[in-house]
Amino acid sequence: MGCENMGPMLYQLIRFLKPRKLLEIGAGYTSIFMLQALADNERELQAWEKMRKSKECTCEGVDWSVDDYFAQERTPPVLDIVDNMEHEATTAHLVMEVAKALNIDQYLKVHVADAYDYESSNFGEAPFDLVWLDGISTDERFPALFKDYFALVRDGGYAAVHSTLTNNLSKAWLASVNAERNEEARCETFRFEVKPWDGECDLLKLEDKIRKAEKSGGLNLTWLEKSSLEEVGFGIQKLLLYARVNESGGNSADAIAEMIGELFEEVQSVDVAPDESASVGIWGQFNYFGFQEPHKTRQNSFSLFQKRPKGFSEPTFSWTP
C-alpha cells in the first residue's frame, strides 16, 4: 500500500523528462516502472529519429523536433540501484528476475551495498538526471545522505523523495532544507588572494592555519573546499581561497581579509573580490513541489526537487505554445 501509485507516477515522469542516467536508493516495486520507462523512451526516440530522416517531424510545416537534442551523443540509458538486500520485507531481489523476464534488464545496474557507506565514485563521473530515494527518509543519517546525492544531480536535473509531507520527521527535514537554502541565498562567494612576504612561506601550511582559525568578531563565513596557488613573480606564489560570506548584520568580506592579515605574520596582504564563477552553494536555487494522496495516512506523498543553479533557465523555442 506504499508505492502502488508511486510506480506509475515515476514512469510518467521519466517518460516526460527523458532522463538518461537514473539512481534509485532502495530497490523494489518502483524499479520496474522506471526501467520500463527507459525502454519505452528508447523506442519513442528511435521512432522520432526515423521521422526526422523522412521529414515527418512537422505540424503545418513547423518542425517539432529539437536539432540540438538529436545531434548530441546520447549515452545508453541506465538505472543504478543501491540496496543492501537486508530489509526483512524486501522485494529488491526480485527486480533482476522481473527485469530479465520483461527484457529490460539491459538498462539495470545493481549495487549491493549500504547507501550510507557507498562511494559515489562507483557511479562514474557523469551526473544523474534523476535520483529517487525511497523509504529511508526517517533515518537520522538521511539529511546528510540527501545532500551527498543531490550534489550528484546535474544542473536542471531532479531528485524525488518518498513520504515527505504528512509525518513530523520529514516535515522537520524539509524545514531545515528551506532554512539552509535561505541562508545560502543571503551569502555571496568571495575569492581571497593571500600574498606572503617571500617565497619561503609554506602556503599549504598557511592555508591549513587559516581554515582552522576561529571566527572572530561575529564574522559569518564558510570556507569552501577549493583553493589554488598562483604565480606572482620572482619565485613567489599567492594562495587563492574561497568562502561564502553573509554580509548582513555588519559582516564583510573586507573584514575577513583584514582579519587574516592580522592573525598571520607571514601574510603581506590579502586582496578580496566576488567570485562570479562560483555556484550558489550546496543547494543551489532549487525548486521543489510536494504531492500528496489525500486518502492515505502513510507513504502517501513525495517531494520533487529540481536543481536550478545561478543563471539557469529553460530554452525558448517558439513565440506561441
List keywords for this structure.
321 residues; four-stranded antiparallel sheet; alpha/beta
> Distance between the terminal alpha carbons, to the nearest Å?
39 Å
Helices and strands: which structural class?
alpha/beta
Query: What is the H/E order?
Result: HEHEEHEHEEHEHEHEEHEEE
Strand content bin: 25-35%
Shape designation: globular
The share of residues in helices is: 25-40%
Strand numbers in spatial order across the main sheet: 5-4-1-6-7-13-12
Write down the overall mean pLDDT: 87
Whole-angstrom Rg: 24 Å
Low-pLDDT residue intervals, each spanning 5 or more residues: none
How many separate helices? 8
The biggest beta sheet reads: 7 strands, mixed
Please tally the β strands and state the result: 13
GO molecular function: translation elongation factor activity
Protein name: Translation elongation factor EF1B beta/delta subunit guanine nucleotide exchange domain-containing protein
Family: Belongs to the EF-1-beta/EF-1-delta family.
Keywords: Elongation factor, Protein biosynthesis
